[in-house]
Every structure is written in structure tokens, then in C-alpha cells.
Prior knowledge:
two-stranded antiparallel ribbon; 10 strands; 26% helix
Amino acid sequence: MNVNVIYNTECLSGLKMLSDNSVNCCVTSPPYFGLRDYGNDAQIGLEATPEEYIEKLVEVFREVRRVLKDDGTLWVNIGDSYNGSGKAGNNPDNIGKHKTFGKVGNPRTFGVPVRLKSIKPKDLIGIPWMLAFALRADGWYLRQDIIWAKPSVMPESVKDRCTKSHEYIFLLSKSRKYYFDNESIKEPSTTFDTSIRDRDKTKMNNTPGRSKMRGLTTNDYEMRNKRSVWTVATHPFKGGHFAVFPQRLIVDCIKAGCQENGVVLDPFMGSGTTAIVARKLNRNYIGFELNPDYIKIADDRLRKEVGIFQY
């Protein structure tokens, strides 16, 4: 398959057309459970139970693991869901209230009974960790949970819990050792002080038992390793797609996970954010998307923001 193309196909079918060990990393956000109806029978997210939803995603990401190079990584942005409480969350008469999330969902997907006996009405289901543990059990190395902290979020009318202002990004790898460009995503240190640096260098070089530190002549105290909480504001999108993560959220995923001229995969491409960021960073992309209207949106965004049209 050609790179820099978003293919109009169901993701599992598309992935099976890719060769083994053919892409460098995967950056994606699958449809959330029971949240939106994209109007296609092959879509993921409207399964009857969380378990069926997770099983389908495991199947998709099993194919992703096959097509990744041995040093490849997977970055998955995923949000959580609540079990229906008998109020707006699962009452068909109130489904119109969910327009905030895009196209009105199918009544059967809101507040569906789940198989897990431990899940009660109003419980947080724990979808992100269900997925993370299922992928780990399927052979992935679960390397890190990253918190996407949102400075501004849609207000919630709930009065018995806090308004949710975060989502997860999971970093998983195909192998124990994998490509990760730590230097490319370092961030400025918040406590840089040359006097502290010089004092600490002397202390480290003369501390008994710190042989690895002895002889150290330089320390880059101006920069530090990137932390695992990423504060990135959401941005409104005027197009016809409602599940658009901000470009800044995935810049470091791609910089750390894929070298220049490598290939970034997104099996749930949507309106093309992964493709746009990949091209801006001089990486190639391959994407799959069920809805042809979303591909048109992605093409338009690529022309305007990157100056290219998929070929």
C-alpha cells in the first residue's frame, strides 16, 4: 500500500492489506464506547457490552502489532464511560442531550447492562484500563500511562462527582526494546539555576558509591525528561467530525516514536489530525477511515495546513 494515503475502508480489513513489519509507530484514538453513532454497520463503539468492545479493539491492535517494525510503538488515546444510571445517560427520551458528543447515539448503547457483575449503575466502567490490560495480555508491552490534562472542558451537570478534565494516552511497545527518541521531546527545566547545577555536579562527582557520576563534566540542567502529565487545551473544530484531538497532543508521540521519513499509522484516521502532524514533522502516514466525508475533510485540512493532497 502507498504511504500518505487515507484509505476508505474498515480498519481491520485495511490492516490485513499491510505487510509485516512495515510501519514505525501507530498513533490513534479509537471510537469511544457507546458515545457516538457514525452511521456505519462496521463501526466500533456500539457493541452491546464493554467486553465486546474491548475484544474488537484487541483484534484490531493485534493486526497493528503485526505490521509494526520490531522496535515499533503504539500510542492510544482513550476515554472512559459510565454505566447507565437511569437518568439522561440511558433514557432514550433524553438522548438529545448527548449532542455535545456529535451525532446522536443509538438508544441501545446508552446505559446498556454490562456483563461484569461488579459494575453497578453509575459506576465508572474503567474502559481505558480494561483496554490496557487486555492489550498487555495479548502480548503488548504496557510501558506507560500518560495523562492528558485539559485546562478547559465541557461543563457537566453532575453534582455527586468532579467534572472530568483528563483522558489517557497509553504507550505500548511491540518488543522489550523499542525506538524512543527521548531527547527530541525533552522539556525546559523549571528549576534551572547555574549555581545549583555547579554545586550538584561537584556533589555527584565526589559522593562515595556514585562511581557512575564521577568524572561527570557536564549536565544539561536546562532540559529535563518529559513528564507523564501533558496539559494540552482542546480546540473547537468547525468541520463535520466531532472527535478531533488537538495536534499538539500527538506531536511528541510522533517525534518520540518515529524517525524522520518513517511511517506513522492511524487505523481510525477520522478528520486527519495524525496525517497532518506526521507530514509537518517530515514523517509519512497511512490511515484508514470508514466515512468518505471525513476523508474529504482530512484532504482539505492537509491542503490548507501542509500544502499537500494525499496521493
